[in-house]
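Q: Sequence in, structure out?
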Amino acid sequence: MKALFIGGTGTISTAISKLAVEKGWELYLLNRGTKINSAPMGAKVLTADINNEILVSELINDMKFDVVVDFIAFETSQIQRDIRLFSKRTKQFIFISSASAYQKPLSYYKITESTPLVNPYWQYSRDKIACEETLMEEYRKENFPITIIRPSHTYSERSIPLAIQGKNGAWQVIDRIMKEKPVFIQGDGSSLWTITHSSDFAKAFLGIMGNSAAIGEAIHITSDEAITWNRIYDCIGSALNIKVKKVHMSSDFLVKCQADFEGGLIGDKANSVVFDNSKIKRLVPEYVATVRFDQGIKDSIKYILSHPELQIEDVEFDLFCEKIIKAEQEAVNYFKNL
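A: Exactly. Output:
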């Protein structure tokens, strides 16, 4: 079986690429070559920017695939480009959408694939919804063999799930915890969040690749582990052998202080998410998520601490944390002294 991954070296796709090669897939990775070290041994790398449609068309001119997966499409123009490139070259086209596209706020607590897609708070999610609609229309009109996958919060040895972080990633929050500085969590930290390790995600995903029953379908892939944000941070602290100093903040207040947080908070992490995974288990009966978060996060922390290139300082975010926490304390002191 022959597959082409557009991307293939990210948080989700690296684990899938590795497992695909192990399972005997003839795997091609189409990317700009900036993360070539993340490509698994045995994969063939096609170096090009997918946005250079003419060059990509020339590279794959005489090639056909059983599966093409686009991990890095975010807008309908990119989907339309993919349709032009692959409509006659693949038996299955898999688009990586997002579970953040599901209704916000939810009308029912448990999410299925038939939960409405509407997110008025996050442009990223609305763009993913538009991409899905474009693909479904192409499937209905032209029989383009699409499968839509909606991941929720997937982490790996290189990343950890956090409620709030800066533009440079997770390291500044890890650093604050290690220095016993307070970190803040939206709400009271009791909302539920579903977390999936990339190795578990990869197992389900491989079961979808080349699966004719998945053509024309939208499927989310998550674990069955839904835990509170307080528990998530406690597990991170346990992996660091440090008790986390948690400060709880209203999501609305945080967004008013930093407008960029609206999508990721109000449009995503401020909501409880619990998934009904019966569809993926029906399509891939052997799928079971086996990496429990309190175990997986230990490997992530260990890996990050041993790889200095992942320890990217974020002074701006650190200062923001200090200002927010100081403002809250000043407000508390003011009312105490009334």
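The longest strand covers residues 26-31.
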